[in-house]
Q: What sequence folds into this?
């Protein structure tokens, strides 16, 4: 498992998800805090390409041996790619949550929502409060 | 300290791996009727093509296989089993004798009632006794388990409201509740509405009033004493508030072992009660079941009980009454886990009211005895007497890098079955301990001593705990891999080749 | 210590004294001080006083003696619970304290016996049914069917389940009751005359709102159904096929999994378990791989320990209530582990050859009895076509009357179908009061079958003579 970190180039959502903007697309994953709380992930229940995701709503589930958690969409859009490697190796989310552990890529339909997301420092402050 | 468990050199293969072509155990009568060819009995399209790959073993093989497996287990018969909320008391062998009487075991559910009068009388009387113990009116013996009883009770609540022309959706559940409660609520067509616990471990009355004020209240599900082992002193007020809001009260009887003959849920204000016979009434757990979860309801709710009910006619005859037009229907086939109910009946018949009371008094004494001894060892978060169980926290051991899980695993090496861990959710690193009334003072001292040594080990040699257990037939198992790549049945050699599931 | 009652509390008066001192209480009553006075029970519970062990046993024997078990009579009762021989080794194994008194295997290191036996049971069910995944067992066939319906509903996100009336009427009732608050609503399709499923009507009832189609094999009246055709009807509409199967038949009958079933459920009491007045039984559920993460109930999986040694654990627990709570696939918290162990021992004893031989023996005895009964005047086939070990006949008088009359002759003649009349409609439902459902197991010798036929014949003959003696009387079809 990697050390705790919250990269500066990402944006964050209060349900412990990160966003990487890539042109019209956004890539989602869960933060170090979330994967640490969940424990070793054994299964990812993910949407299909073409599905709609809505900001603030869950789009999938991650399971460890003893827990299940919803994964929330920070932004609204249409799924254009799913990290299929998570089918066989869901623990990538633990080992490299910002890299190989990415979960889905969407085409944003409301990029204005980006301004509502937290930057790394604000997210870290949010974690400290909790 | 226990030695390595299991017989030396135990063959740990599965029964399938022990199979050898042509071996057989069975014997069947010779065919004494015309030997009609299979083709004339079963049409081609329905005939079995490939036989099921059941074992090919001799009878001796089977007996040795399962005898060997039994040595890898740990039951109440082996030692202390202080699992909180499970009430692992001794399972009297007298119950086994009576349940296996041919006049009970050999009954078909559809045989004429005139030929099952003993069974019917037993069911009727058990229903009366449970009603007396619960402090309510009528019993159904149908539910097969506590969770099943919960669903039955919730469907009765639903029927009650619908009959009044209402359809409220919310059932209040405390944050200390067992997982079956919210799951049952959803299956009953309701939504769970959580209520917080206060500093003394009971329902937070302030928060309850807020939740009730939001309206749409179908009822409240509660265990009393709760899963912290504490009696909620506000129970009468809680009942009044919920009834005022139009809701009904459901009693989860999992913790009844604390209050038999001392306080009855009906007198506390509950409308529906379920009992777990495999907890309170000594029926054996069997490695996971079968149990029974009979429920008792108030007179007002009796019309909704599942049909049939056992009735006693004026001429003394017992019969099944199917004429119950407001019944919610049938919760299972036939009448109940009758074989389990015979055991519960036997237990209650032998103990009588004084014996049942003594069960609770001793269960509570034993739990307090252990709790006092544990106060110096672990964190016991509530400063009051407990009832039949208490919750300790292993949080003080965190500084040594030891968690409740490690304590539990090391207890196995000391020959004590671990308590319930990580429940209830509101206590960090929870260890829920319920000794039950059938443990002797020495058994309890031995149990506490094991905890004492483990706390010492946590300070002096924490690695020992993190590696535990070391004397069991297996070490800690890779549960993550089991969940990631589930293998849920035997892989036969031909499956491996074919790359099958 | 109480006199004259059973008591399992080990403490002596001396023990009590020491323990009270240790907790700082002068009496046990002090320990209950938290209980408010207005909910304290001061009087003794109004229950009969306790009894010593010898007296308890005498009491229970008295009750048991008022029952007539199957061993006292020649029984042809079936309808979901069957009088098969339970091999002697079953009770010897199941009665061992390490199996009987163990809890659910939440601490796997100390429960490998339970876990491995469940793994072997799951394997056996998969082998019998031809499915990929079996759970660790459920309460009974009826609740297993209710759970299968909920599973199909959540998998397909559709709101209706279409059942053939050939599914056991009690199972259908349980399905209706248990899904009243949650799950697809059921719709029943009547049987044809001859007691087989009406596939054309089934097809008409199934649409894009259908989560599952359910048939039973053999069906309630013993008819053998065209499971593959039912699979086509279901799958064409995008629905799942649920088959209610009889495990004893699966040595002879094709596995439902090979005929297109997506979910197989049923009652396995016939294997290793006494009839016990209908409970505890042994429900089972097996599914195709895509449903693995939704199947309710416990699952045991294979894994390795820290040293690479094989072991077994409860797995995929995230489906279950103790983790998912209100989002669980079901509220089921237990299984019928001991009954499953009994079934596993019985299946191991039978083995692959024995199960087929047992099935063939029962089927031949049933065929023989059926043929002989159908030779009697006025007796006609209610179930037409091939059957396994159970079939229904239509009598020229009420079946309940015949059954009652044959008891003094030492027979439990069969289950009068009229008691289920409320659960049937259409062509198969007319005159159900005259229909008798008869099951034949390996315990019925030819001599018993022949005596039974003679007894039925005698009663039918007596019936004819009794009514013929009254001028102008109709034969009473009451």
A:
């Amino acid at each position: 498992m990697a050390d705790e970190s919250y990269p500066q180039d990402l944006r964050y959502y209060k349900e412990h998800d990160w966003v990487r903007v890539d042109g019209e697309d956004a890539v989602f994953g869960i933060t170090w805090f979330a994967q640490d709380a969940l424990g070793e992930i054994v299964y990812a229940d993910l949407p299909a390409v073409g599905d709609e995701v809505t900001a603030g709503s869950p789009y999938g589930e991650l399971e460890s041996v003893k827990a299940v958690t919803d994964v929330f969409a920070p932004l609204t859009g249409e799924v254009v790619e799913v990290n299929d490697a998570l089918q066989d190796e869901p623990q990538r989310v633990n080992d490299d949550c910002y890299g190989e552990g990415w979960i889905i890529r969407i085409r944003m339909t409301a990029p204005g929502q980006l301004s509502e997301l937290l930057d790394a420092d604000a997210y870290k402050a949010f974690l400290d409060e909790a | 300290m226990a030695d390595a468990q299991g017989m030396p050199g135990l063959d740990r293969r599965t029964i399938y791996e022990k199979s050898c072509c042509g071996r057989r155990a069975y014997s069947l009568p010779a065919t004494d009727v015309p030997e009609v060819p299979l083709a004339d009995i079963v049409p081609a399209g329905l005939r079995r093509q490939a036989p099921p790959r059941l074992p090919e073993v001799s009878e001796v093989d089977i007996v040795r296989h399962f005898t060997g497996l039994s040595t890898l287990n740990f039951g109440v018969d082996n030692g202390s089993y202080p699992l909180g909320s499970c009430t692992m008391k001794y399972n009297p062998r007298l119950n086994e004798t009576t349940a296996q009487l041919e006049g009970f075991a050999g009954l078909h559910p559809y045989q004429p009632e005139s030929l099952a009068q003993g069974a019917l009388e037993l069911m009727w009387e058990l229903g009366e006794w449970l009603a007396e113990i619960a402090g309510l009116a009528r019993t159904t013996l149908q539910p097969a388990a506590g969770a099943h009883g919960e669903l039955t009770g919730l469907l009765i609540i639903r029927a009650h409201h619908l009959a009044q022309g209402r359809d409220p959706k919310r059932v209040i559940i405390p944050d200390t509740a067992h997982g079956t409660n919210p799951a049952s609520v959803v299956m009953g067509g309701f939504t769970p509405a959580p209520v917080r616990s206060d500093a003394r471990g009971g329902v937070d009355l302030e928060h309850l009033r807020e939740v009730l004020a939001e309206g749409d209240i179908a009822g409240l599900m509660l265990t009393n004493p709760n899963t912290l082992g504490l009696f909620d002193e506000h129970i009468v007020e809680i009942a009044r508030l919920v009834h005022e809001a139009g809701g009904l009260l459901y009693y989860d009887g999992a913790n009844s072992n604390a209050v038999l003959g001392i306080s009855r849920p009906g007198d506390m204000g509950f409308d529906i009660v379920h009992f777990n016979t495999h907890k309170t009434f000594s029926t054996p757990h069997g490695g996971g079941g079968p149990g029974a979860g009979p429920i008792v309801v108030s007179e007002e709710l009796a019309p909704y009980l599942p049909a049939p009910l056992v009735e006693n006619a004026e001429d003394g005859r017992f019969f099944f009454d199917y004429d119950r037009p407001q019944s919610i229907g049938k919760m299972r086939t036939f009448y109940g886990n009758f074989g389990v109910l015979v055991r519960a009946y036997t237990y209650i018949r032998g103990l009588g009211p004084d014996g049942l009371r003594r069960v609770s008094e001793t269960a509570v004494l034993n739990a307090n005895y252990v709790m006092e001894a544990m106060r110096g060892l672990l964190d016991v978060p509530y400063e009051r007497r407990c009832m039949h169980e208490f919750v300790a926290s292993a949080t003080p051991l965190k500084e040594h890098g030891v968690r409740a899980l490690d304590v539990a695993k090391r207890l196995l090496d000391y020959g004590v079955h671990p308590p319930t861990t990580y429940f209830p959710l509101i206590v960090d690193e929870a260890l829920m301990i319920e000794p039950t009334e059938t443990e002797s003072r020495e058994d309890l001292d031995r149990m506490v001593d094991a905890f004492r040594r483990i706390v010492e080990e946590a300070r002096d040699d924490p690695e020992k705990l993190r590696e535990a257990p070391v004397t069991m037939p297996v070490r800690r198992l890779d549960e993550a891999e089991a969940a990631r790549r589930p293998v849920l049945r035997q892989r036969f050699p031909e499956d491996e080749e074919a790359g099958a599931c | 210590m109480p006199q004259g009652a059973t008591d399992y509390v080990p403490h002596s008066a001396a023990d009590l004294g020491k323990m009270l001192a240790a907790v700082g209480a002068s009496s046990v009553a002090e320990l209950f001080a938290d209980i408010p006075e207005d909910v304290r029970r001061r009087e003794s519970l109004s229950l009969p006083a306790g009894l010593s062990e010898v007296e308890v046993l005498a009491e229970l024997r008295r009750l048991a003696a008022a029952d007539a078990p199957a061993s006292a009579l020649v029984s042809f009762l079936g309808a979901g619970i069957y009088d098969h021989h339970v091999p002697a080794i079953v009770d010897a194994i199941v009665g061992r304290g390490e199996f009987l008194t163990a809890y659910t295997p939440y601490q796997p290191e100390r429960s490998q016996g339970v876990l491995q036996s469940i793994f072997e049971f799951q394997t056996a069910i998969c082998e019998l049914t031809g499915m990929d995944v079996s759970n660790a067992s459920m309460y009974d066939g009826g609740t297993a069917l209710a759970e299968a319906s909920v599973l199909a509903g959540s998998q397909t996100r559709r709101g209706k389940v279409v059942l053939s009336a050939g599914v056991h009427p009690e199972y259908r009732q349980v399905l209706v009751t248990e899904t009243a608050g949650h799950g697809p609503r059921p719709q029943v399709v009547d049987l044809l005359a001859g007691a087989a499923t009406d596939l054309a009507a089934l097809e008409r009832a199934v649409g894009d709102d259908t989560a599952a189609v359910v048939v039973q094999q053999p069906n309630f009246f013993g008819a053998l159904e065209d499971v593959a055709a039912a699979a086509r009807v279901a799958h064409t509409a995008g629905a799942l096929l649920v088959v209610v199967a009889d495990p004893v038949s699966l040595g002879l009958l094709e596995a439902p999994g090979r005929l297109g079933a997506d979910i197989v459920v049923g009652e396995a009491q016939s294997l290793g378990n006494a009839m016990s007045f209908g409970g505890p039984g042994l429900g089972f559920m097996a599914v195709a791989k895509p449903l693995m993460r939704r199947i309710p109930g416990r699952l045991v999986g294979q894994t390795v320990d820290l040293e690479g040694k094989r072991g077994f654990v409860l797995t995929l627990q995230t489906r279950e209530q103790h983790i998912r709570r209100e989002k669980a696939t079901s509220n089921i918290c237990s299984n019928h582990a001991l009954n499953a162990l009994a079934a596993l021992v019985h299946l191991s004893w039978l083995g692959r050859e024995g199960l087929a031989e047992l099935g063939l023996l029962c089927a031949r005895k049933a065929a023989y009895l059926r043929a002989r009964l159908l030779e009697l005047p006025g007796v006609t086939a209610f179930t037409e076509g091939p059957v396994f070990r159970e079939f229904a006949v239509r009598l020229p008088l009420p079946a309940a009357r015949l059954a009652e009359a044959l008891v003094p002759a030492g027979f439990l003649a069969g289950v009068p179908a009229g008691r289920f009349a409320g659960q049937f409609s259409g062509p198969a439902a007319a005159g159900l009061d005259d229909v008798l459902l008869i099951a034949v197991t390996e315990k019925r010798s030819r001599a018993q079958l022949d005596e039974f036929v003679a007894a039925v014949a005698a009663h039918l003959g007596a019936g004819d003579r009794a009514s013929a003696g009254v001028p102008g009387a109709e034969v009473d079809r009451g």
